[in-house]
Amino acid sequence: MYSRHLIIEQGGTRALVTGMGATLALKVAGLKNWSSIGGISGGSIPAILKAAGLHPVTALEGVMACDFRKLFEPSSKGGTDPAAAFAATQDGERAPAHKFVTRMLRKGMMHTDKLGELIEDQVKVWPESFWTMASSETSHVLFTSERVMEYGFDGSISVLSEEPAPISLAIRATCAVPGLLEAVEFRGRYLFDGALSPYGGNPVAFARKHLLGEEALIVSIHSSGKDSRKNDMLMSLGRWLLCHSAGKVKTGDHTADININPHVPQLNALRFNMTEVQKQLGMLAGFNATIAALNKHGNLFQEGLKNLSCATDFNTLLHLVRHCIS
Question: What predicted TM-score, i.e. pTM, was given to this entire model?
Answer without folding.
Answer: 0.89
